[in-house]
Amino acid sequence: QVQLVESGGGMVQAGGSLRLSCTASRSMFSSNRIGWYRQAPGNQRELVAGITTTGSTISADSVKGRFTISRDIAKTTVYLQMNSLKPEDTAVYYCAAGATGWNLYNMGYWGKGTLVTVSS
């Protein structure tokens, strides 16, 4: 049963914008915090931004001021608006859900990922 589905990746020039979407099942959306993670070739997977069940958000220092995480409760969807994209943002972006914490091992559910490529 697929519970997290990402969309919105693609190729964009530096300085451009993309919006990623993560649609979760209703039960998962209401009971788990959801985060966006990314993994670039040769790098470890890292947290980009996350949102809790109460709407509190967290984001990595590297994306503060450029990326915004938000959610649409009615659509059980979490968005990652990415502006002022840089080549170093190139990675596979994953949506993940977990009950507590933001470490990788806290997130029990993962989407398949969507590729974001930023050209210089």
Structural class: mainly beta
Measure the end-to-end span. Answer: 38 Å
> Helical region count?
1
The H/E string reads: EEEHEEEEEEEE
Radius of gyration over all CA atoms, rounded: 13 Å
Low-confidence stretches: none
Helix proportion range? under 10%
Task: Give a written overview of the molecule.
With 120 residues, the chain is mainly β. Strands 2, 4, 5, 6, 9, 10 and 11 form a seven-stranded mixed beta sheet that branches. Strands 1-3-8-7 form a four-stranded antiparallel beta sheet. 5% of the residues lie in helices and 51% in strands. The termini are far apart. It has one helix and eleven strands; from the N terminus they run βββαββββββββ.
